[in-house]
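forwarding from the other thread:

> can someone predict this with flavin-adenine dinucleotide?

sure thing
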Amino acid sequence: MTQHADVVVIGGGQAGLAAGYHLRRNKLDFVILDAQSAPGGAWRHTWDSLHLFSPAAFSSLPGRLMPAQAGQEYPDATHVVDYLADYEQRYDLPVQRPVRVSAVRPDGGWLRVEADAGVWTAGAVVSATGTWWRPFLPAVPGREVFAGRQLHTTGYRRPADFAGQRVVVVGGGNSGAQIAADLTASDGVDLTWVTQRPPRYLADDIDGRALFDAATARRRALDEGAADTGGVASLGDIVAVPPVRSARDAGLLKAQPMFERLTSGGVVWADGTSARADVVIWCTGFRPALSHLAPLGLRGTRGHIATEGTRAVGEPRLHLLGYGDWTGPASATLIGVGRPAREAAAEIAALLS
Ligand SMILES: Cc1cc2nc3c(=O)[nH]c(=O)nc-3n(C[C@H](O)[C@H](O)[C@H](O)COP(=O)(O)OP(=O)(O)OC[C@H]3O[C@@H](n4cnc5c(N)ncnc54)[C@H](O)[C@@H]3O)c2cc1C
């Protein structure tokens, strides 16, 4: 049987919940469909030692401040999961799970949302499916001949899993630096860290708060037709969170340039030097998880969809939330997703009125 809602939100991580909060405030009838079996989105799957790069008070969704975590200035991922679980209960958000959406397509005046648990029609859809589910691996020669183990950031949990192994970590962003630092904490991991350009650390006293401010200032400048401030990228690539800072200051985080290719037994640089490896961990980023939107035929460059604010240019009934700066400044962060969620809900309310 086909069900109907004013709005279907796809994804019940932080972005989907922020959307729900504002849809409720606009008195819209909505449902949130989430593929996970429990609350927390991607935060349920990160590595054990991951901590937020901002204090709790600067990591909150609309309406409810994240409480501090005892003894931790920067809360860990379990604290975020607890906060998100509490958030959806407190606001009685109608999340259905596990429900995986496979397709969204036009259906007369509605959008039709097809999922493993049924079909919904809706006046509007908010896609909030995140990026964690679409790891990106670069096309480096030899990837298919490497005889060791390869995994992406999404598969990494803890250094003990690699005891006694030669591990190459690829990537000069936050994930690469944090996982490399994590591995230095374990005895017996022989670590090689490679980055495409020399690591660019943000100043030690800068954390996620400054990233949010930089992303917001950039959006404002671009909206006003002023020069591009460069946003977050102008500050650096790596937030020097305490474990990264300690490993770096102890001289344990020495980055090498990117290698040229993999062989069956390791990696080789352009000058012919090589390193043996048992494991390669690709900390090489993510793409937006948008395959369910393919039937709408909206895909643009780098897997993005052209948007004005959060609204898809080619389909005004569709909003995209939480994927990155292209769906709102710092919208892929806890503190940053509230504002675009509010704007999306207001636009949807106006559209459906
Ligand atoms: C390593 C790492 C560290 C980070 N650190 C911080 C930090 O310190 N502070 C901060 O603010 N941000 C941080 N972020 C960024 C961001 O806050 C998280 O990535 C966050 O999980 C994004 O939330 P989301 O709701 O957009 O996506 P997700 O948390 O991925 O939630 C999306 C939900 O949609 C579901 N879904 C996906 N596809 C479908 C489908 N087809 N049908 C139904 N459901 C679907 C998923 O199962 C998931 O439950 C970090 C990100 C990473 C990767």
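Residues 321 and 333 are 11 Å apart (CA to CA). thats all i got for now
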